[in-house]
Write a structure and sequence with these properties.
The protein has 331 residues and is an alpha/beta fold. The protein has 16 helices and twelve strands. Helix 5 links the parallel strand 11 and strand 12 (167-169).
Length: 331
């Protein structure tokens, strides 16, 4: 199958390398140093899903229409990347692999005649250097769209991706995005402190803030009428219990998540953006919780403080100490 990958960073690089290894004809889009490295040496892939050097076609934008496309940029880059490639995305299935709640709505405004599918990745990949990505923790990908049953396009894309990694079409994709948003509350503390996800959760002070942001997210979701979808053991009933726990007891959830990630340090995708001098997705993660809370007239003080702290730090390139990070408000 002819596969197009837009945005060949950690996730795009992983999908591109694995589909190339499985024999698909893969074309990728990249820019700057990343594009130069892939064009010169191929795309180097290693880590938990094996090793491969993919000799993919690489260019700044797609030069032909593929049978299936994956858009794997950060949320803040998605609109521009979709616009730049719109000509070759018309009428085909376009899978947007992206955290946050807005991926499909943004894409629908730019590609009204594509078959849009959202995808939530629960594995962890790292952009090691231009043209080199590594998988630091395995996990499944969930594909779907909207509130109902998964479309034929979602099932078929899950079938293709399922050839190379665990991938499932899921109903209630909106609920799945919220469940993933709860998971992504592990991203901010590493991005604020420069520590890995495992290190931040092992630190009692930072872990309290992670737990508080997760619990706040869960509560805002429930108050907004969200029915959380089941993703990798996290379900609506479990999150209902979690949302009512005191902080000391709720801490067991991020602790379990960190344990599942294993011993290879997982930086999380937000810290990786900072390390590469890129803007972060904070407005689409913790910021999405603040906006959802505002929409129902509720405050989200923990997530608002995290967003504010990140906005202050991003332009400086500096990090908080664990003491400073642990002093963020929790409730
Ligand atoms: N990494 C992870 O473990 C996980 C990430 N996710 C989510 O997946 C999505 C992708 O994340 P991730 O792979 O980590 O992000 P990366 O930053 O590693 O990769 C995104 C890539 O897109 C490229 N890009 C941006 N705009 C364009 C454009 N217009 N044309 C071509 N390329 C472009 C960037 O280029 P450049 O290198 O020049 O910046 C970058 O290489 C995010 O929503 C993230 O939250 C979900 C689960 C796990
Ligand atoms: C699943 C997780 C937390 C993997 O690191 C992720 O989604 C991210 O880093 O953005």
């Amino acid at each position: 199958m002819r596969i197009g990958i837009i945005g060949t960073g950690a996730i795009g690089g992983t999908i591109a390398a694995l589909l190339d290894r499985a024999g698909h004809q893969v074309s990728v889009t990249a820019r700057g140093e990343g594009l130069a490295a892939i064009a010169e040496h191929g795309l180097r892939f290693d880590g938990a899903w094996g090793e491969h050097v993919a000799t993919v076609t690489a260019s700044e934008t797609l030069v032909a229409t593929p049978d299936l496309a994956f858009v794997c940029t950060k949320a803040q880059d998605a609109s521009a990347a979709l616009r730049e490639n719109a000509e070759h995305l018309r009428g085909i299935t376009v899978v947007i692999v992206q955290n946050g709640l807005e991926a499909l709505e943004v894409a629908a405004g730019i590609l009204p005649d594509a078959e849009l599918v959202g995808a939530l990745a629960l594995y962890a990949s790292q952009y090691v250097e231009p043209g080199h990505v590594t998988v630091t923790a395995t996990g499944s990908t969930y594909l779907g769209a909207g509130a109902g049953e998964p479309s034929d396009a979602a099932r078929s894309a899950a079938g293709i991706l399922g050839q190379v990694m665990p991938a499932f079409a899921t109903p209630n994709f909106l609920g799945a995005q919220w469940t993933k948003l709860v998971v992504n509350m592990v991203n901010a503390m590493p991005a604020l402190t420069g520590l890995s996800v495992q290190q931040t959760i092992a630190d009692r002070r930072l872990s309290r803030v992670v737990t508080a942001s997760m619990r706040e997210t869960t509560r805002i979701g429930f108050a907004s009428g969200v029915r959380y979808a089941t993703l990798q053991g996290l379900s609506n009933p479990l999150l209902r219990v979690f949302s009512a726990l005191p902080l000391w007891a709720a801490r067991s959830l991020p602790t379990l998540m960190a344990r599942r990630m294993g011993s290879v340090p997982n930086l999380g995708s937000t810290l990786q953006s900072r390390r590469r001098g890129r803007t972060t997705e904070i407005d689409y993660l913790n910021g999405a919780v603040v906006r959802a809370a505002a929409a129902i007239g509720r405050p989200a003080p923990v997530n608002a403080a995290i967003v504010e702290a990140m906005q202050g730090l991003e332009p400086t390139g500096e990090f908080l100490t664990p003491e400073q990070g642990g002093a963020l408000p929790v409730r």
